[in-house]
Known about the structure:
The complex is a heterotetramer, with two copies of chain A and two copies of chain C. Chain A is α/β, with parallel strands linked by helices. Chain A has helices at 5-14, 35-50, 85-94, 107-111, 115-124, 169-174, 190-202, 224-228, 246-251, 263-270, 290-293, 302-316; strands at 57-61, 76-79, 100-106, 128-134, 181-186, 206-212, 233-237, 255-257, 276-283, 317-318. Chain A contains twelve helices and ten strands. Chain A is globular, with a radius of gyration of 23 Å. In chain C, the strands form five sheets. In chain C, strands 11-10-12-13-15-14-21 form a seven-stranded mixed sheet, with helices on both faces. A six-stranded mixed sheet of chain C has the order 3-4-2-5-6-7, with helices on both faces. Chain C is of the alpha/beta class. In chain C, helix 2 (65-79) crosses helix 7 (216-226), helix 7 (216-226) packs antiparallel against helix 8 and helix 9 (273-284) packs parallel to helix 14 (408-425). Chain C is globular. Chains in contact: A-B, A-C, A-D, B-C, B-D, C-D. One thiamine diphosphate sits between chains A (63-66, 82, 106-109, 133, 135, 137-141, 146) and C (292-294, 321, 345-346, 349, 376).
Amino acid sequence: MSAPLTECMLKLIDEEYTLHDYQSDIPPRWCTGCGDNGILTAVQRLCRDEQLAPEKTVFVSGIGCSSRFPHYMNAYGFHGLHGRALPVAEGVKLRRPDLHVFVTTGDGDCCSIGAAHWIHAVRYNMNMTVLLHDNQIYGLTKMQASPTSPRGLKSNTTPRGTYLDPLNPLTVTLGVANASFVAQAADWIPEALYDIILQAYRHKGFSFVRILQRCPEFLPHHFDPWLRDPAKMRLLVHPQGLQLSAALSKTYRNQEVHDPGNLNRAREIASLTDEIPVGILYRNSQVPCYEDLREGERPNTPGLIKTVLEEEFDKFTIWPEEQDGAPRS
Amino acid sequence: MSAPLTECMLKLIDEEYTLHDYQSDIPPRWCTGCGDNGILTAVQRLCRDEQLAPEKTVFVSGIGCSSRFPHYMNAYGFHGLHGRALPVAEGVKLRRPDLHVFVTTGDGDCCSIGAAHWIHAVRYNMNMTVLLHDNQIYGLTKMQASPTSPRGLKSNTTPRGTYLDPLNPLTVTLGVANASFVAQAADWIPEALYDIILQAYRHKGFSFVRILQRCPEFLPHHFDPWLRDPAKMRLLVHPQGLQLSAALSKTYRNQEVHDPGNLNRAREIASLTDEIPVGILYRNSQVPCYEDLREGERPNTPGLIKTVLEEEFDKFTIWPEEQDGAPRS
Amino acid sequence: MKLRMRTEAFPNPTRERTGCTPGDEAARGLAAAVGKTGGAAPRRKPAVTVDEHIVEIVSDSGEGAQRCGQSFGSIAARTGHGIWTVEIIPAEIQPPARSIAGTSGNRVRLASRRIMNGGDEADLVVAFNEQVLLSRVRADELKADCLILLESKWRTDPDAAIAASYAHVCDELTARGYRLHEIPMERECVKYVPDPRRGKNMFVLGLLCSIYCLDPDIARAQVRFVFRKKDEKVIDANLELLQAGYEWAEVNLDLKFAISSSRPREPQIVVNGNTALALGVVASGMEVCAMYPITPATSASHYLSDIFEKVGCVVHQAEDEIAACAFAIGASYAGKCAVTITSGPGLSLKQEGLGLAVMGEIPLVVIDVQRGGPSTGQPTKAEQGDLLAACFGGHGDAPKIVMAAATIEDCFYSVIAARKIAETFNMVVMVLTDASLATAQQPFPRPHFRDDWLAPPVDQSAAPDGAKPYDWDPRTGLAARFIPGQPNGMHCLTGLAHDRSSRVAYDPEANQEGIRHRSLKLAAFQRTLRTPAVFGGEDGDLLLVGWGSTKGAIEEAVERLRAEGSRVSALHLKFLQPMASGIKEAMQRFDKVMTIENNWCDRVDGDLIDGQNRRYSSLAWLLRARHLIDVDCWGEARGEAIKPGAIVEVVRHRLQ
Amino acid sequence: MKLRMRTEAFPNPTRERTGCTPGDEAARGLAAAVGKTGGAAPRRKPAVTVDEHIVEIVSDSGEGAQRCGQSFGSIAARTGHGIWTVEIIPAEIQPPARSIAGTSGNRVRLASRRIMNGGDEADLVVAFNEQVLLSRVRADELKADCLILLESKWRTDPDAAIAASYAHVCDELTARGYRLHEIPMERECVKYVPDPRRGKNMFVLGLLCSIYCLDPDIARAQVRFVFRKKDEKVIDANLELLQAGYEWAEVNLDLKFAISSSRPREPQIVVNGNTALALGVVASGMEVCAMYPITPATSASHYLSDIFEKVGCVVHQAEDEIAACAFAIGASYAGKCAVTITSGPGLSLKQEGLGLAVMGEIPLVVIDVQRGGPSTGQPTKAEQGDLLAACFGGHGDAPKIVMAAATIEDCFYSVIAARKIAETFNMVVMVLTDASLATAQQPFPRPHFRDDWLAPPVDQSAAPDGAKPYDWDPRTGLAARFIPGQPNGMHCLTGLAHDRSSRVAYDPEANQEGIRHRSLKLAAFQRTLRTPAVFGGEDGDLLLVGWGSTKGAIEEAVERLRAEGSRVSALHLKFLQPMASGIKEAMQRFDKVMTIENNWCDRVDGDLIDGQNRRYSSLAWLLRARHLIDVDCWGEARGEAIKPGAIVEVVRHRLQ
Ligand SMILES: Cc1ncc(C[n+]2csc(CCOP(=O)(O)OP(=O)(O)O)c2C)c(N)n1
Ligand SMILES: Cc1ncc(C[n+]2csc(CCOP(=O)(O)OP(=O)(O)O)c2C)c(N)n1
Ligand code: SF4
Ligand code: SF4
Ligand SMILES: [Mg+2]
Ligand SMILES: [Mg+2]
């Protein structure tokens, strides 16, 4: 798993990380055709293109098929508890701004059991890239409805179809204070997926990317309507947002020029039900990051700690008779 | 606490509940000037005007000053766990549509530890009235910052001021699928408070009312700017929404005609930062209630249970030799 | 208050039926068929009579070994054998083909008598490729001279590496003494179906029916039942494959085993533990099950979701376990006693909610289908790791009742009992099962429905004048509770310390009064428990004490050991908190006492572990504390059911 | 690995100083002042010499009795008395005036020697109204002949009901033998300040200084200190009130008590348990405290929030306890060992997270300031109810280290030790304190800062070739862990069962190997523990065993009992899981062993409770299970610290 030291040395010489450097020696164990595979590829490309040092990169996840992601990256990984990926990632980032933090989570992991953490993570706006693998189903536990499952979907816990309209992760995120980067991608448009993840990574703050992800195992034809008819995908283009290659804009003619600075329009686009918007819905680089707001003015050296402790002790000290009997204020 | 049987009998005769019938014999223990007192009065008036049978009315709460509410009502009360009022209330309502369910919760109770339940309760859209007592502080535990505390507020856990912009309960709620009733009130405009709670109660579905509530104990002058200057309060008026008395509209001249059916505008209004909107931001009577969607076609009589069980047993039965050895399909 | 406890093994009156009877109708029919297909005339084969066999069918997941195994088990059961089937579950959702981690299938133990566990190593294994076969060898799941029926197509696989690996494995296993039979499964199947990979499993079913002389009529009926939702063409194709397999074996295999069987006199049902739990929920009259998906508990909710609506009731999938617990509490508070089903991690999350139910004295049934821990651990594997968390998990003094299901049948009746206890004592009742019961199948007497299983209708009558919601009975701690809708019963339930009127109690006395009465209810309930019976002899050298799913294995081990002449007996506990009286006396009649548990306890072999720091298994810990008897323990945390043979080994060793 | 344990009481070399010395400078100054105010010349009053007194000051909340009591305590401490102060906390946030539930104030025990607990009933109480006084009478907190100094203004209150109630209470209490002194507090105060209600408390402070012959210079210095953030006018006004109270007492009261005092040779600090915890966090070198507000833990976070930023560190108020725990785990994983502080309900919510830390072997310090349970229980009250949940709360086999702070000083050192243990063993370390330590104050030697208290800087060096993240040492179970940033150390930490390379482990062996090594670490740590010393005699009739905050009360009870001639000793445990060796041997040297715990255990008096169902106190349960000794227990759940007198009573009774 960990490349031998000698290799690391070589790195220092020719400075170049290759795709291979980001692949762990555990072969991905997702089903064939699973959208997670494409997301993994995109992220490994990103690491290569941004030349992220594997030892300085941390992938935090919860539990779910998507949360197996960190096992397949050659980087530090934290495959934790169902729903708790975000607070763990916040703890990692707080005192280690030098680390690149990524979070991979599922629609159940993030939007169901993890919903409270999700809302508050958006508000903390810590500098990390969050990939919501939204396959609209519980994959790992074998096909139960998720909050994002479309109404009427038959699953093992809803054999007669789900009862409610799906939760919309985009409108919820856009309703939270300090939202600073909100985007949507689809695993079947790898080029846009890559561009969006790249911009998400480069955005300083909490970058939330909802990725529509196929689960052939349990929902084989789920996204077919959108796959068959590119016109049902609306690509959001803008100089500050996504820019399409000629090829892409030829297939996806349904495009909207959307300024990521426009929150109200972003909310309207996010609310679309029939069409799937792809691109950057909202970006605001002005929102401060929690880790910066909480950074201490001075490093916590032993000397400083001693000084402060003595100051505090002084306030509470009773001195022996020889010394001044009065408390120091 | 429980009125003697004879009194109940009398009730059946002259059918009229008075305010007194909704007051428990425990005197409210909130600080003098606490906004919770006004909310209690409004709710007791509502019960009287709607003639709710105390034994058919349930007040569910979490933990906090505001969550002491059920102790002061003569009705069934459930003063449960911090953050968990909503799922408890859902469980109460599911099989007891005959009960009137109210939830009183605080900004910490609902928006911090209870955030996941809040998001999902909006989506379930069960028929209950939810009062968010938002004093923008943790009262019961003596003054820690809450997610709705304005940035810079000094509290016991943020002695140098809070670090983040406040969470906006209205925009979050309006971002959730199936939101069917979202309103805002302020404890210092009792007339509007009453009208809004009344409409919330009458709406069939999950009625979410955020009430700006004063906490003189810990934030004595917190809302003064808005108290002093009525122009900073924007009243939302509409035939389908709030209608102001002459007196009220004389004091509060800053009014906007807002159609509660307009979601996009509702989100814009909710996003106002300097002005405080008061009124009904959004209403949609078309959203089905979860308890109705889950109602069984047939009552679970012993007879029915026996029939279904035998059917199921048949599928798994091995019959003795005498009988047909083939499994029944 | 009387509770119906069904822990004792069910008496099983039978009529004998032994040997292979090729003379009968069905077989003649098949013989004829064989004739028709012009193969060599069926040789008369002497069937080796055995008392029991353990058969495994393993394949890549998706190749249908599980369905084949389950059908085989059902046919054997219907034929009148005692059976116990165990699922072999792949650790991955969708593992690569021909991989060790991906082995999926079924183990079927069939015997001439009723059996209560999955037994030891396999006598015969059918494998669809050599890799899945290897995984079973590596896991030591096969007898030294195990019979192996292996798909032979790999020998000639275009991919040289595969062919080589296959040949290598075959040679090695033969060398090691396994009795290998290579079988051209797909080659035979293509004669009948276009895609042999999908039909294989029914062909294998045919093989097995021939080998174990199972009634062909029953086999055919079973196949029809399995495919009942498919159209006739599919059914016919599979019947053909069944027949083909049967014929092929008759002609080409020299294997026949006769296991005597006896059809039970009364109807039996064959279900797994989770299905039994779900049926128990329906039979208990509960109306609400609030849950959040988690392996291995979920399949119970799946089946319940399917049938609960038919009786007008609801399975609510909440946003998380905390909400599921709170939701169930709300429903119970409103008079509809509810159940929440989960597994280890969910139990940890529910602890705070359970404390509220204890404090508010709200009846609640909690089912924990235990899995491998700690943390996410081994979600699909069996372990008994949650006993202490169930007893002591919450903060403060939160007395709960904890019981465990010992058999599949017991899963059904435990839920019914739990609901009754919960509503009689207004308490939280935990029912512990585990992954090994969850997926194992075994026949047990078809239950006779009784109205008194059900909850009485919600009381909505007016509360008596001046009655208090917590008017604790000084002798039992019991208090009538008032349910919303009852005139005159209005009060505010609270998780804060409270007095008899449910008012917040600030003074020391009131606080202690509440704590004392909540604790007293446990004692009151304890007085209703019967002393469990000792299995084996009333006294002796060693008493094995167990709880939950290990019962069958422990008692079988005791039978074997006693047959060897050892003075070993077993005691199995259904109630872990509180425990019945008389257990101490039972233990005192033996020189040594040892618990057998499927959870971890420190071995005393290392140089670090001693009496001062050894961590004991959970039940041992409870028995030691309660009875001050030096209860030893032996346990494993291998993620699978404990084998009777393993217990026999351990005991032999301890008794030396 | 060596850990600095500070459980033994600190040797306190002193110089004697007894009697009331009105001859000294300060007093003469005051006498003069008295002269000036032209009152009757100060009578020479003989001071009754006593060894100790317990003084209570009670008022409605907001009237400043707490500040008065704390100042009185500090002055006494600075004068050289041994002191222990206990807060009397109202149960309501803002209770109505003159209400029993609203009583707020302070209890100060001052003595000639160092004392380790709050003692028994009060000798003297100052009350601002008769209702708050009543609440103390009702709670049996006053000695039979207790001296009462009561604000007299109510006698003439315009509201007839109030006046009547006042008169009635006075008559009754006098009749019952209390020695009542009515004092015109406000009438005197108005002479100096416009709003006497706000100044009263300093007037009372003056009274008390006169009555207990406290050094007026120190008193004045203290007042200046208390109001240091206010402007001079405020300070002067309060100094005037102090003086007025002193003078008034000198002239009008016939009460003077002399308690010998001796100023310590080395500096002492006076803080409460929560402040000590916060100071310990800073001193441990931890950089992150993730918490969610909860009483009574919160005040520790309040103080920490105030000082932690000064050393560049962070208190993070998370959205809930689960997030707080996960956040702390994330920080620890990234190399910054973190602490999460909570109380009972929070502990229940963190159980799943703690299991992950155990499984991932991530160092983590968890502080649980226990409160009254179960559920929301009694948030402001003291109880030791979380021990078993701390040991066994999570699902699966999740070994953690559990320790408890026994004194306020110990709160400070326990956190430092906990961080060290956590990082040495990569384990979860729980530190238990409770509400009674949280708010009690007592002087202890000012700590001498040591660099080795601090965590070493995060290791970012490259991991050796082929090194594995869980390369468990077969003897100790310890493994070096790799921290993000370390080249070559990349791996994926997981809550699933895993092998030495942190890869998901599917096979039985790998799973057991992990469980075995995580368990082994507990034994390895256990070997580093010293056997705690027995207090009293090495053998005898009865050994009292305790843990946590009860130490002072138990040992004082033992002293008294031994003085009576009973052969009683005490053993106090700092580490509850694992426990030090030698405890069994210590217990065996006594005829009877009994734990004294501030939590519930069933009384055996009722007709229902017997040995088969009695629920024991937590520590008793652990000792019985581990050592098979019939450890009895006595406990209360009254929400307050156990009194030495109560223990003396119980022991006398048991020894009959
Ligand atoms: C506390 C807890 N509850 C439940 C589970 C079981 N569980 C594991 S993953 C999962 C949901 C998976 O769905 P999702 O988050 O959408 O991820 P996916 O598998 O679809 O990628 C659940 C319920 C668990 N591991 N822990
Ligand atoms: C699990 C748990 N965590 C924390 C607490 C402590 N606690 C009680 S109320 C409260 C917050 C109160 O603030 P809010 O919800 O805004 O209600 P308010 O008192 O302001 O009305 C907290 C943190 C608790 N009781 N339970
Ligand atoms: S189950 Fe679905 S989500 Fe999971 S790996 Fe397979 S395809 Fe992907
Ligand atoms: S503390 Fe604030 S919120 Fe609580 S009762 Fe007092 S004023 Fe109301
Ligand atoms: Mg999913
Ligand atoms: Mg609040």
